[in-house]
Amino acid sequence: MPTFDAMPRALIVHAHPEPLSFCSAQMRAAADSLGRAGYRVDVLDLYAEGWAPVLAREEFAPVDGVFKPQAEQLRAVGEGTLDATVQDHLDRLLAADLLVLSFPLWWFSLPAVLKGWVDRVFVMGGVFGGAHGLFGEAALAGKRAMLLFTTGGPSESFRPGGAFGPMDDFLFHIHRGMLEFVGFEVLGPVITYGPARMSDEERAAALEAAGQAVARATRKPVADGATA
Fold first, then answer.
1. Minimal CA–CA distance to 117: which of 40, 178, 186, 190?
2. Can you say whether the dihedral through the CA atoms of 194, 195, 198, 203 is positive or negative?
3. Alpha-carbon distance 178 to 87, whole Å?
4. pLDDT in tens, 51-96
């Protein structure tokens, strides 16, 4: 049996303002499922923590002249002067084998607080750039990431020919432009479509299904084609 320290680590970064929402319940179901699957689970609830999403010059050492955010991130990493909360989140990110971004799909993208977490924690010099490259040469290469989210519209709306178009079109900038960019292997998303339109029984079943889907998605293939 693996020791506690040897267990794989999962970091769930959650972004919903209502703890009683289906989205928040879905995050907790995923955390429970990952724990049963052998992960040591760390949850960052951005709204509960009062996360400040704005990348601002005030979190860096004084700058003479033009403020260049990525250059200041690189300098702060090198000098060990990153904002203490950002450094804590970055350390937890680097320690994780799996990153799960949990959120409601707002305006076909991430809520602002979660996008701001990416802006501030995917630090140049910490996860890409500087001593690191991009994509397969970035700091998070060899680790995995996935999206866990809810929508307002039904699944039919997110298909080719549907009212909104294919879901993959909306996720490309997150999958490729954020997660793969810093080295992650991106797993398929786990999505619950339109939970507000479901009955209590349907929501309970959807929570169970989401938890199981997260656990299935994170199983690593082994040599004989089975899963571990």
1. 178
2. positive
3. 19
4. 999 999 999 999 889 999 999 999 999 999 999 999 999 999 999 9
pTM of the model as a whole: 0.93
* Closest by Cα among 136, 149, 66, 164 to 100: 149
Strand-pair partners of 41: 10
Interatomic CA distance for residues 100 and 149, integer angstroms: 10
As a residue count, the chain comes to: 228
Q: Which among 121, 139, 134, 124 is positioned nearest to 78, based on CA atoms?
A: 124
- Who contacts 9 (Cβ-Cβ below 8 Å, separation ≥6)? 39, 40, 41, 42, 95, 96, 97, 98
Q: Which residues, in sequence order, are bridge partners of residue 150?
A: 104, 192
Angle, vertex CA 30, rays to CA 216 and CA 53, nearest 5: 125
